[in-house]
Specification:
A two-stranded parallel ribbon has the order 1-2. It has 21 helices and two strands. The termini are far apart. Helix 1 runs parallel beside helix 3 and helix 2 runs antiparallel to helix 3. The protein is mainly α.
Length: 564
Amino acid sequence: MSAVLSPTALSVPTTQEIAGEKKMLLAFWVTGFLALMVGIAIGVLQSTNYAGIDLYPYLQPFLKTYYQGLTLHGVLNAFVFTFFTISGWLMYLPARELNLKPMMGLAWFTYGLMLLGTLMAAYAMFDNSSSVLYTFYPPLEGSPWFYLGITLVVVASLLPLAVVLDMRARWKKAHPGEPTPLVTFMSATTLLMWLLAALGAAMEAVFLLDPWSLGLTHTIDPLLARTLFWWTGHPIVYYWLMPGYITIYAMLPRQAGGKLVSDPLTRLAFLLLLVFSVPVGTHHQYTDPGIAPVIKGVVTALTLSVAIPSLITAFTVALSLEYAGRRRGGKGLMGWWMALPWKDASVAAQVLALVSFIFGGAGGIVNASWQLDNVVHNTLWIPAHFHLTVGTMTTLVFMGVSFWLLPHLTGRRLYSPKLALASVWLWFIGMMTWGLGGHWAGMDGVPRRSWVSGLPHGQYMRLYGAVHPALILVGIGGVIAMLGAVAFYIVFFGTLFGRKDAKAMVAIPFAEVIAGPQGSIIVRIADRLGFWTLVTLIITLAVYIPVLWPMITHPIHAPGFVLW
């Protein structure tokens, strides 16, 4: 699948330049996983909280409250870890597929700006001045350092789009009439979707949160801010997932010993994710006032439509894995499944991530339904759902990628493949246990984002005693996942600081395809990325203008307050 370009057609990077690109991705990757490490450590406190065990008093003065810990856990995992790893990943892969030099100055500027924003936001979270959770809902008020820092991180996350589109344009100029190579197509589509998705959070930050926190305005409109947040807050889920889909479509089949069965179906799935992902954020506001019921009905239908590319992904990837398993000797109905290379930690991580996403996706359909969402809204079901999506699907895929990417970037042999495999299974079992307990407790009405362990034991048992077994599962799942994280980071740092080994250098496992892009109508249609971005913007505005206009013309003026 990797494009082969003649030196006379385009400027091919030298070995030294490729080494610089590897250092760039390594900086993004290591910084992202350092943030995840801190977020996971705090996540254990969130898990034991629901089991009725309050560990926060033992962490004074480092962490003062459950809500400070929850803010750090959410921001470091959902924003910092994902933004760093995804930004570097989506700039590096197209450069290697196209064999082109990316704009390294802009790539490093992206890293610097994102790091500056992260340090600003981290300062405000660690000093407990901004315990406003990762959704930073006003009128809860945080420090200007927090809001300005998050603004810089979001702005920086948009810059890789320019890097990728520049490489695509140069390749297209040298190859007129040819479709964009698959990995570059998927990377560009992901970043174009994120460009449209980030508009909501950007408007909230620039026009509401930043001036409010700086004292330039004295009140804020909570409903408008919340609506702009969810403009971004739901499609960000696909920004987390789509880079993982890239490796699952374009690399996992080869790692498993097979081929990707269909290039056109892969492009169709990404095109539908671009169009369907952005205009659906209002489904997080089914219970909010100020939004017309007809809009909520339309958003329900649009949200459920996102299941279509997910089903295409399930079919295409499952068939690719079956092809790989049968090539490896798998017989009978499910023999191919057992024949997959389960001893390869990278393959096991990605396949188990797909298994987890079956359950995460099913729970997402419940959340998307206007009627069913009323049962689980603001309960522990919701965090259980996204612990199976971003917490398992995205995180486990990137953990698995690390097992070949670090040797690729550093020329160092993977430290303890057996421990790497153990980390994968521990993380998977821990997160699935967490998900089971959280969904169960959510169905019984246990609230999310609640410092339940801070209650007197008798009151805790009166309120949650009937569902205590489920909450114990949440705590156990968190501890098991933590053990997996410890094992993973031993492998991660053991590889990072291990000995150089010329034989350890791993090539990017770009997969071959069975049904290629040649002559496909789907490929020709999907390659018009500018047109489809405009279509998505028009649909998004058609959905959001009727939602936002009444809020803009009838604003709410709420003073800010600090609870923690």
